[in-house]
Design a protein that fits this description.
alpha/beta; 4 helices; single chain; 4 strands; 4-stranded parallel β-sheet
């Protein structure tokens, strides 16, 4: 079963839908997940469902591991996502 990290409170209906298909670990707060916790929790996940407050960069991708397949962001833009680092993987 795929493992997904959700970095913030999102509508519960979305979480329940994900839980039907994957193992979900969620930061259940409206406050951004601390970077050190994010780097710990991302280890071994297959997907990350994040907000614009989480910097998705080479450090995070290295922490996640080579099995990471999907990074999804709930935001208007994607300035917080290092596209060259994602492309390199």
């Amino acid at each position: 079963m795929a493992k997904v990290l959700v970095t913030r409170n999102v509508p519960q209906q979305a979480i329940e839908r994900m839980r039907g298909a994957c193992d979900v670990r969620q930061w259940e707060s409206d406050v951004p997940i601390p970077r050190n916790v994010l780097l710990e929790w991302v280890q071994g996940v297959d997907g990350v469902y994040c907000l614009l407050t989480e910097r998705i960069d080479a450090e995070l991708l290295d922490a996640a591991g080579s099995q990471l397949k999907v990074v999804s962001t709930v935001s208007v833009g994607y300035d917080h996502v290092d596209l060259p680092a994602l492309r390199a993987r």
